[in-house]
Amino acid sequence: MRSLLLTFALFAFLSVGLAAQAPPPAPAQPTPTADSNQRDLVIAKDKTAGQSIAPASVTIPRSYALVVGISHYKNLPAKAQLQYPDRDAADMYTALISASAGQFPPENVHKLIDDQATLAKLKQELETWLPNVTGPDDRVVIYFAGHGFISGGKAYIAPYDIDPANIGATAFSMDELGKLIGGRIHGKWKVLLTDACHSGAITPEDDTAQVNHSLLNLNTSIFSLTASRDREQSFESSQWGGGHGIFTYYVIKGLEGEADTSGDGVVTADELAEYVHENVRLATHARQNPTSERGSFDPNMVLAYNPGTSAKCTGPTCAGTLRYGTFVIDSNMDDTEVWLDGKSLGIFKKGVPQRFPGITPGPHTLRGAHAGYAPDGPREMQIYPGQDTTVSIRILIARQRNHAAVEDFDQGLDRYNKGFESNYKEAAADFQKALAIDPQYSQAALYLGRAHHALYQDDDAIKAFQQALTIDPEYLEARLSYAAVLLDTGDLDEAIRQLDSVTKRDTTNGMAWYLQSQAYVRKGSYDQAVASGEQAIKYTPANAEAHLWLGEALRKKQQCDEAKTQYETYLSLSNFNSALAGKLNYYLLGSLIGMGSKKRATQQDIWRELRAQAFVGICDCDWMQKNYDVAATNCQKALTLTPTDLFANYRLGLVMAEQYNRAGSIGLLEDARKYFNAVIAINPQTDEAARSRKYLANIDSVLAQANVKQP
User: Span 110-126, mean pLDDT?
Assistant: First the structure.
């Protein structure tokens, strides 16, 4: 009896499970090790005839997804914990938001991993969020990886906090999921992906077929692709991409472009189904057979799009069951990152080879990199149908810096750290000299980007950061700086992708989490901003800006008491002499990035603007809570730091007008008039300016009447 691991995704109806055995070895396939597990079948519909129809022109509809992965359960015993659902979900999220795969807006993909995936949160996402945001022309994906159970003759998916003694009350009913997908969740393209595994050790009733049919009957109008047939087993192992459910591994590789057999850059439902079926079947020696349902779904359904991809193998050698090949890659050094065709395969350990099957035959580019060393590659390697291609990444040569380049860099760094425009210009020249002497000086490229950014030369900054990452793809500090300047230029989606790459490699990187929180605030995705902000504070509680952006997210959710606590924490942590602020290396001058501020010339400006932002946030919360006197005090504190803050002036004008309504003092009305005029002077094109003009007309009318009554 196996533990039932389900994985939901409005994306392709798929499933995989978990157990203590492995599929039999097959030619050109890995021999499963002790960590290989079976995942019992969840659902299957037989595949009928049909051909993919590539759209003449690609239009990506508005897209939403829920991605859930639970490996570790609060109330289950150690033997019932799972291995890879959390990683499966994290990589599925990356594939969906990728500009070269799913192309989902990051703020529209909600991710719940392990203890985030409680029953209450699942209900909120499935019953409230998706039904409220989706429309009839949308594309929708739900992905769940975790346990599933049968209880009382009904099938359930298991949230993190499931109570195995009370499944009916603590799990999510499959019947209810079916009703939601079929009715309340809208969309023209619906895909469900399920990865499930079954174990009698925790399941009170052993009826795998019933679970399969519960899933099967969820909805007949969606494209469904399942991991296996009824009563088959499905597998997971570390030997697929370093640790994945076999089925999920091929789904992700397919979305990343390997399933695009037509070479038009589009991965259709039919192409993904064929790719996954063929590769999973080969990988498990026909013990696991994914099946697809070709019902009423749109044959032009676009699951992924990357116009830069093309079919690499179209000749007769590519036909039949040996259409794909496998890279087997190892490294001679721990913490080596390997890139395949520009996509990271992850971090490798010394002497631990990883298999990457399902690769389209033809030439591919591989590159290995380790901080402080010359990279291995890029080098072109050939994949052959049905064969393994073994690649040994060798990191051998520690970078030796040219003494003259180091001197230029050190001089530039000293100037950069002094702040002010003139110093940034001289620093940029020094960093350029260092790079001219040593073109592989990634640190010089990083600081050249930072200097350009401080000078508002964002295009040059982006080029410099990209150069740093070309030299050292695993240079997380450069990736963070690149994300920060992307925030400044308004490319929020790419910033989130870069930050996702950082947090996957360094989950404790508080800087990446707080920048991600900022990005989500600006995207208007406040739940995700709160989640990222909480992660930032978890790992770096002394990072003042993490508290600031969490406060911003909570304020936008109108959770003002919690927001004010975070603002006050920020103000306490940043309460130092302003002269010291000028010497602090605020991260890439990036904490106010993208907020419409282009007047920063020194890091002191950033310190003042951030503190003003916190005071404005507290003022706004007190305004919402009708604490007008306190609100006025905090907005005035903000204006002592940044007199041209538009929102502080606007909110203070409203506060003064409200105080006049309560107290009747003409002086308050005259103060309100002053602040509304300031809003118009700062930026006459804003909505606040338009509203200020209306308030001024009312105020002038009242003041005119008051003047008539005076002797």
Answer: 95
137's CB contacts (< 8 A; 6+ apart) are 61, 62, 187, 188
| 50 band by pLDDT with thresholds 50, 70 and 90 | very low
Mean pLDDT value across residues 635-660: 92
Fold of the domain built from segment(s) 403-589: 1.25.40
Q: What DSSP assignment string belongs to 523-576? A: HT-HHHHHHHHHHHHHH-TT-HHHHHHHHHHHHHTT-HHHHHHHHHHHHHHT-S
Q: Which fold has domain 4-310?
A: Rossmann fold (3.40.50)
Q: How far, CA to CA in Å, does 190 sit from each of 90, 97, 237, 249, 661?
A: 21, 17, 29, 21, 53
Q: How confident is the model at residue 74 (pLDDT cuts 50, 70, 90)?
A: very high
Mean pLDDT of 1-29: 34
Residues 6+ apart with CB under 8 A from 408: 430, 431, 433, 434, 437, 444
Residue 57 reports pLDDT greater than 70: no
Name residue, tokens 């992850």.
346
Phi and psi angles of residue 33, each rounded to the nearest 5 degrees, phi first: -95, -175
Report which of 85, 92, 89 is spatially closest to residue 5, judged by C-alpha positions.
Answer: 85
Distance CA 587, CA 181 (A): 43
Domain ranges for the chain, please list them.
4-310, 321-393, 403-589, 644-709
Pairing of strands 343-348, 336-340: antiparallel
The pair of three-digit structure tokens given for residue 18, joined into one six-digit string: 């978990």
Q: How far apart are CA 280 and CA 272, in angstroms?
A: 12
pLDDT, mean of residues 333-344: 85
CATH architecture designation of domain 321-393: Sandwich (2.60)
d(CA 664, CA 363): 79
Residue 390: φ, ψ to 5°: -90, 130
Instruction: Find residue 359's DSSP bridge partners.
Output: 325
> d(Cα 284, Cα 188) in Å, to the nearest integer?
34
Provide the token pair at 72: 């570790």
3-state secondary structure of 14: coil
Cβ contact 85:69 at 8 Å: yes
Predicted local distance difference test score (pLDDT) of residue 232:
66
pLDDT-derived band of residue 397, with 50, 70 and 90 as boundaries?
A: confident
pLDDT of residue 309: 57
pLDDT higher than threshold 70 for residue 26: no
Rounded distance, CA 701 to CA 706, Å? 9
CA distances for 167 relative to 101, 117, 148, 155, 159, angstroms: 37, 16, 10, 10, 10
DSSP 343: E
**Percent of all residues in the chain with a pLDDT value above 90, rounded to a whole number:** 42
First to last CA, the chain: 95
Least confident of 74-83, 148-157, 513-522: 148-157
Distance CA 471, CA 91 (A): 25
CA 670 – CA 673 distance, rounded (Å): 5
The answer to whether the Cα torsion of 22, 24, 26, 28 is positive or negative is positive
CA distances from 21 to 5, 36, 84, 243 (A): 15, 6, 16, 16
Q: Structure pTM?
A: 0.77
Residue 103, amino acid? Q
CA distance 150 to 204: 7
